[in-house]
Amino acid sequence: MAMRIDIPATTPTRAITAVTSILWEDMVNSPIKEGYGEFINKRKIQYAEKMIRSAFVELYKGLGLLKTY
């Protein structure tokens, strides 16, 4: 299954919203196998965590609160 993400790096809010919608769509659209429940692989979760982390770094840089990054 291929996943394409096109997120403009304009604001942290957009990045977080995009990640949330991608994960939500994946959970809703994935076929539910009997006895296995819904499946989100570890790679997608790690990618989402990385995007959220970078969004918060951008937020704090924008607020001038992050001295080193």
TrEMBL record:
<dbReference type="Pfam" id="PF03105">
    <property type="entry name" value="SPX"/>
</dbReference>
<dbReference type="InterPro" id="IPR052486">
    <property type="entry name" value="PHO1"/>
</dbReference>
<protein>
    <submittedName>
        <fullName>Phosphate transporter PHO1-like protein</fullName>
    </submittedName>
</protein>
<dbReference type="InterPro" id="IPR004331">
    <property type="entry name" value="SPX_dom"/>
</dbReference>
<dbReference type="GO" id="GO:0016036">
    <property type="term" value="P:cellular response to phosphate starvation"/>
</dbReference>
<feature type="domain" description="SPX">
    <location>
        <begin position="7"/>
        <end position="69"/>
    </location>
</feature>
